[in-house]
Amino acid sequence: MKLFSILLLLSTLLFSNERIVKEINFEGMVHISESVALRMLDFKVGDTVDDKTLNEAFKKYYKQGYFKDLLILEDNGVLTFKFVEKPVISKIEMKGYKEDDEEVQASLLQIKKGMLYDEKKLEAAKTRIINALSQEGKIDSVVEIETTLLENGSMKVTFLVNEGETIIIQKLDYYGVEGLKPSEFNTVIANKEHQWAGWFFGRNDGKMALEQLSYDPLRIRDLYMQFGYLDAKIDEPFVRVDFDHYSAQMSYQVDEGEVYFIENIKLFQQKKVISDEILYDVLNLKVNEAFNIQTFRDDSERIKTKIADLGYAFVQVLPDLQKDEVNHTVNVIYKIIPGNKVFIRNVIIEGNNRTLDRIIRRELFLAPGDLYNLTDLRDSRNAIGRSGYFETNTVEEKRITDSLMDLVVKVKEAPTGNIQLGGGYGSYGGLLLSASITDRNIWGSGINMGVNIEHSELTQSYSFNISNPHLNDSDFSGNFSIYKSRYAYNDYSVASDGITVGTGHRFTRYITGYMSYGYSATKYEDIDLATIQPDNRIFFESYNKSAVTLSANFDNTDDYYLPRIGFSATQSFERAGLGGEADFLKSRTSFNKYYGIEDLIGFDAIFRYKARYSFLADTGYIPLAERFYMGGLGSVRGYESYSLSPREENINGELIRIGGKQTFSNSAEVSFPLVPKAKMRLTTFVDWGFIGQHDLTEISKGGYGAAIEWFSPVGPIQLIYALPLNFEDGDRESNFEFTMGQRF
Q1: pTM, 2 dp
Q2: How far apart are CA 17 and CA 13, in angstroms?
Q3: 165: which of 219, 537, 700, 730 lies 20 to 30 Å off by Cα?
């Protein structure tokens, strides 16, 4: 501004007298064209100007923000405006904080390449960085701005961040708490007392989150209201900070009040569209029970869903409470404004650059002309997610009129195909080469096709498969596969050739049935039958299998690869004996439950429970290869694949695997974000399984460990590290495994 004042004074002295403008010139101007600059002036060639007119022109140009210096020169009526523009920022960096998170950097800096250098904007960015660090509980943070003028005249700006210290909550007290346990508050609050080994998963590290301090009393009060304490009052926390040691002590003063019980539940429909009895049936709040604010909210949502399923897309449910503070009772009231019935005018698909529109539309349970249904809308979202073709999907409701809406389906396509070439060397298997081409959505058609080749000194495997989940866009599916393999185990080798063809039908949006026929020929090699007990030699004889498999599947999850809600269950029966030597009945049952617990703990964690039970009934002849084996993926991680099995001694006294007729395994997993930007998650797990010839108590083994789940550019990859439990001499341990393209 000092320079501005000097130049303004100089201009005033130069133009103290009026002059006629003969010519107007501009020098050093880049961001504004000459034609625009001329239009900004209040005069033109031929006009008479004085010092006031020129001063106004000076100010107008300067306010544009493009110029660092500006000078007006006059020579016998020729005006020359000389500009010195601000340099352009060609490079911007932030070091010491969120260096690998471009999204956060963009939000904090709000400065992009190509912008003009502006000190005010730089200082504003500096303030935002310090505020962000403060919100994370870090104090005494320092941010310095380093600028470098490059040879091309542009500017490089670097924000050097020195993160301050984090305040650790060493003590957290509650006064006035009687009805609830203080430990229960840890399930809802963000600022928790430091626990020993707080760095370990599931423990509290005690780091103060300043931005959450004002919300924690509300969370505690909400928890009280879930137990009927409608008058509960929680004061703002009293915080004492020791800045020398960066520690803090906190306390809350709580006035619990009394528990309120429900005296009555009332429904008021502005327009009668459904029987009150039907709505009462969906409510979980009950008269004479303690009030629960969470159930109150859920009941409101259930009422909304029930009415919206009748076509009332814009229904409003206005919940209210009438408290009797003397008797500590409450009347629960729901006022319902249904609005008009709404029909779907159009369904618009966006974001599918590869997948055909019809592949998405066949997963939708609403179409143009249909009456709106909220449950159908939610199920459509989940069905699109279960297809596995998309990373994310949303279905937006675009209101057209009070009785018409458009549905806008927005998808982000996921990588469904990949080409892999790999190799490796192991002391047991020697050199391994593998190649595969797979695509779950080939050419965007929804057809799944794959070719796999694997070759090593001990393993040769070749397979081709193709399947279509919706033949001709119908509810029927079809699949075909052919394979040839040879596996060399420690005690024998197995060579198999086979072919499978099948079809299925989707009976409901959650239930699908399948029927398939398979034929295979299996031959045992590299085994000396003379060393096998006479009663067991039949198990190592070559055989053919001709079998029909019937199965049913239920799946109401919300995503194919990473479900957060719902469960899936499958039951299959395989009957072999329709020709060929193999003659048995095999039953397989699986159950997977997924539960996202973000609402409970504040971040995107997922709990999973998986169980599998299989049973073999001997109706004639059960070959060794058709029996059950545990270990590895899908059963008990930490043990070598298929290594857990009942065994019998051969004539030489060596133990050989003979497989089991029953097996049960289950696992509990918790998955949470590891590197969200890279779509990488960490999962901890515990497996336990049982297997036996006659009952499940013969062999009992477990395993535990951790896995990295990564949505890589070539598809989902899981890297697993596991350790065995109940390990015994003779068991085969396997610590590392990986999968690709499978559901987590």
Answers
A1: 0.71
A2: 9
A3: 219
Q: Give the homologous superfamily in CATH for domain 89-162.
A: membrane protein fhac (3.10.20.310)
User: Rounded to whole angstroms, how far apart are CA atoms 627 and 625?
Assistant: 6
Contact 225, 291 (CB under 8 A): yes
- Encoded tokens for 389: 């073709």
* Under 8 Å between Cβ of 218 and 233: no
For 133-138, what is the mean pLDDT?
80
Element (H, E) at 361: helix 357-361
For residue 385 the two structure tokens come to 């997610």
Is residue 641 a contact partner of residue 732, using CB atoms and an 8 Å limit? no
**C-alpha separations of 293 from 217, 321, 332, 640 in Å:** 16, 10, 11, 50
CATH 3.40.350.10 fits 343-413, yes or no: no
Please tell me the CATH superfamily of domain 167-255, with its number. membrane protein fhac (3.10.20.310)
- Kindly state the tokens that stand for 559: 């995503």
User: Which DSSP string do the residues of 97-155 spell out, in sequence order?
Assistant: SSTT-HHHHHHHH---TTPBP-HHHHHHHHHHHHHHHHHTTEES-EEEEEEEE-TTS-E
89-162 matches 471-477+493-516+525-740 in fold: no
Domain 471-477+493-516+525-740 has CATH 3.30.470.30: no
What is the per-residue pLDDT across 56-95, written as a single tens digit (0 to 9) for each? 887 887 777 677 777 788 788 888 888 877 788 888 889 9
Give the gyration radius of the chain's Cα atoms. 36
Alpha-carbon span 379 to 557, nearest angstrom: 9
Q: Quick one: fold of 261-337?
A: Ubiquitin-like (UB roll) (3.10.20)
Spatial separation of the C-alpha atoms in residues 199 and 632, rounded to whole Å: 30
Residue 328 has what DSSP assignment? T
Residues 699 and 630: their CA atoms lie apart, in Å, by 10
Supply the pLDDT for residue 289.
95
Count helices and strands (H / E) in the chain.
12, 38
Residues 118-134 pLDDT 10s? 888 888 999 999 888 88
Q: Which amino acid is at 73?
A: L
434 with 420: CB under 8 angstroms?
yes
CATH number of 2-85: 3.10.20.310
With a CB cutoff of 8 Å and minimum separation 6, the contacts of 490 are none
Cβ atoms of residues 169 and 192 within 8 Å: yes
CA atoms within 13 A of residue 195's CA, in its CB half-sphere: 12
